[in-house]
């Protein structure tokens, strides 16, 4: 009798996860394996042949794709450190007794609620070479116009700047909640021992905040390696491929040229890079992880 | 002693002034792009031209840009699509994910932890790396969109609501968050329910679901924002004008008006207004949601 009830409960467990898990299986796990499989073919929506590793060989001779990897790394290096430092600074400033704290917090988070399309539109106008606001300010100061998104030297920086603007608030909220989790008595004890502000920051805030920083860092890495929307809308990868990223290459090869086998091989690279980032970070960030176990 | 205290006070006041100064600088940086969108949306063609540029529009009752933006795109259809998709995705995913999260957290069944591990893996998979098979799958659904029974010949479920709703009814992150949330309750809760004769399903509906308001509010905000703002999947999965979402419509609008920044900014403003209203009505939920889900709490 008891045995039967147990089996019954077990089936109910499967039943409850079934809708969610089946959709997840069908639309996430199967596509992961399918991408890997497709990367060994020349599928183009009509027909496919097994081509072995030729997509991978082609990929590492493809100057545009290699450039897109380098661009993605460059974008990450430009955004992640700046976002983390700015977000941490703002969070530290807001984590004091302040007037209008709620106002600042609400406002700083605001850019994050806009869609990437809307954000891109706003910045397109700021960046426009002929009628954009930034160049108007420069001209007003007697300086030459800058091709914010039309010169190969500036374009990636411009894409990075608008992404930083978009992301700081979100990460600030994460840091703020991390800071509020640090027990007050640690600071009080340090004050009694005569610690300076810097010492408190260095020896209490930084180590206590490590799990948050770790989480913010991992998420920022994952997000920046997928950067796509702003690239497609603001620069479409140009000029001269100076802003094309891995995700943008996947999109172009897959859905503009319909080289789906080749795009799948690039998708596998993206998958592996993100997997590697997560695993490496996880190994280094032990002790303060977010797995909740 | 007295003078030292005074010194401290002055130093603190200086630090406070500096704090407000830096915060205000960031306020300006945050606001400038937004304000420029608003100002530009009210300017005439002349006022945005290089020759007679002015920072402020001559009147905030100049609505021609909005009229133009409204005329060029079938916004009611786009808003309808975005709204319909968002509502169904939010309601469906909330229900399915919280059920699954509950089962993973409170019930025992064989392979539970292994299945949950595969869900954690999914949190690292980015949309761009699985979009190609997803597209092929949608395109080759048999007997849909002109396809024969082997799934070829037509466009399958591409360009349909199904393609923009069904894949998003589940999500690694949602299941994960619900499972974490339901893990925090004491065991005695299930036991009490069992003694009262509730099976697992009734326990979920009568005990756990009423206790889930915070996590459901958080998930609602997160899922609604990401669905409403999503641009990638509508871009890939839809073709026809009648399936366009708000984000896609805005991107298409850009393509047709490269020189009319005042029209483009008016259109941008039209698309962000619903989100801004929701944000200011529920800003607490936004911020708390991020704070509590970003980290284990």
Walk me through what this model shows.
The complex is a heterodimer of chains A (293) and B (297). By secondary structure, chain A is mainly α. Helices cover 72% and strands 0% of the residues of chain A. Chain A has helices at 2-38, 54-59, 63-94, 101-109, 116-127, 133-140, 155-180, 184-192, 197-208, 210-225, 229-235, 246-256, 260-284. In chain A, helix 3 (63-94) runs antiparallel to helix 10 (210-225) and helix 5 runs parallel beside helix 11 (229-235). The mean pLDDT of chain B is 87. The longest helix of chain B has 40 residues, at 2-41. Chain B has a domain at 73-256: MetI-like (MetI-like fold, Orthogonal Bundle). Chains A and B meet through helix 1, helix 3, helix 4, helix 5 and helix 7 of A and helix 1, helix 4, helix 5, helix 6 and helix 8 of B.
Major sheet description of chain B:
none
- The 3D shape of chain A can be described as globular
| CATH topology description of the domain at 73-256 in chain B | MetI-like fold
Order of helices and strands of chain A: HHHHHHHHHHHHH
Quickly give the CATH architecture of chain A. Answer: Orthogonal Bundle
The CATH superfamily of chain A bears the name: MetI-like
Task: Give the N-terminus to C-terminus distance of chain B in angstroms.
Answer: 43 Å
Short description:
The complex is a heterodimer of chains A (293) and B (297). Chain A is mainly alpha-helical and 293 residues long. Chain A has helices spanning 2-38, 54-59, 63-94, 101-109, 116-127, 133-140, 155-180, 184-192, 197-208, 210-225, 229-235, 246-256, 260-284.
């Amino acid at each position: 009798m008891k045995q039967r009830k147990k089996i019954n409960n077990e089936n109910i467990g499967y039943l409850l996860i079934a809708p969610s898990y089946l959709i997840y299986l069908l639309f996430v796990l199967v596509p992961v394996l399918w991408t890997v499989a497709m990367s060994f073919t020349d599928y183009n929506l009509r027909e496919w042949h097994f081509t072995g590793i030729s997509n991978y060989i082609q990929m590492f001779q493809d100057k545009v794709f290699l450039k897109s990897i380098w661009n993605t790394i460059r974008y990450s290096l430009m955004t992640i450190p700046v976002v983390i430092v700015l977000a941490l600074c703002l969070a530290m400033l807001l984590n004091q007794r302040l007037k209008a704290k709620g106002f600042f917090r609400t406002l700083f988070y605001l850019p994050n609620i806009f869609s990437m399309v809307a954000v891109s539109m706003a910045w397109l106008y700021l960046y426009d070479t002929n009628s954009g606001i930034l160049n108007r300010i420069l001209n007003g100061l007697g300086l030459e116009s800058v091709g914010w998104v039309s010169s190969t030297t500036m374009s990636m920086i411009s894409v990075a700047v608008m992404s930083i603007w978009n992301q700081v608030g979100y990460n600030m909220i994460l840091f703020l909640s991390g800071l509020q989790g640090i027990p007050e008595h640690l600071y009080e004890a340090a004050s009694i021992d005569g610690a300076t502000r810097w010492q408190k920051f260095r020896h209490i805030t930084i180590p206590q905040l490590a799990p948050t920083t770790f989480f913010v860092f991992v998420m920022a890495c994952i997000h920046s390696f997928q950067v796509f929307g702003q690239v497609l809308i603001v620069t479409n990868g140009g000029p001269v491929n100076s802003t094309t990223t891995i995700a943008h290459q996947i999109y172009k090869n897959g859905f503009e040229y319909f080289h789906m086998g080749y795009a799948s091989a690039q998708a596998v690279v993206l998958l592996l890079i993100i997997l590697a980032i997560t695993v490496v970070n996880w190994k280094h960030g032990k002790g303060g992880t977010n797995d909740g176990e | 002693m007295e003078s030292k205290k005074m010194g401290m006070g002055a130093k603190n006041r200086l630090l406070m002034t500096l704090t407000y100064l830096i915060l205000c600088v960031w306020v300006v940086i945050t606001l400038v792009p937004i304000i420029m969108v608003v100002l530009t949306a009210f300017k005439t063609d002349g006022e945005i031209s290089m020759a007679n540029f002015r920072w402020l529009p001559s009147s905030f009752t100049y609505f021609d840009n909005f009229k133009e933006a409204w005329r060029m795109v079938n916004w009611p259809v786009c808003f309808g699509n975005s709204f319909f998709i968002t509502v169904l995705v939010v309601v469906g995913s909330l229900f399915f994910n919280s059920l699954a999260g509950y089962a993973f957290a409170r019930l025992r069944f064989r392979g539970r932890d292994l299945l949950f591990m595969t869900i954690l893996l999914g949190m690292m998979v980015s949309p761009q790396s699985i979009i190609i098979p997803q597209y092929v799958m949608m395109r080759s659904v048999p007997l849909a969109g002109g396809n024969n029974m082997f799934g070829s010949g037509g466009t399958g479920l591409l360009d349909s609501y199904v393609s923009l709703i069904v894949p998003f009814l589940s999500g690694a992150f949602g299941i994960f968050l619900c499972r974490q949330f339901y893990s925090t309750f004491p065991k005695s809760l299930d036991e009490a329910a069992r003694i009262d004769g509730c099976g697992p399903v009734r326990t979920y509906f009568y005990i756990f679901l009423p206790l889930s308001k915070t996590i459901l509010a958080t998930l609602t905000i997160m899922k609604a924002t990401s669905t409403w703002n999503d641009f990638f999947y509508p871009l890939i999965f839809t073709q026809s004008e009648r399936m366009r979402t708000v984000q896609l419509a805005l991107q298409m609008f850009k393509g047709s008006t490269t020189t009319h920044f005042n029209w483009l900014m008016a259109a941008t403003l039209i698309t962000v207004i619903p989100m801004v209203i929701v944000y200011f009505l529920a800003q607490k939920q936004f911020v708390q949601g991020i704070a509590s889900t970003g980290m284990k709490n």
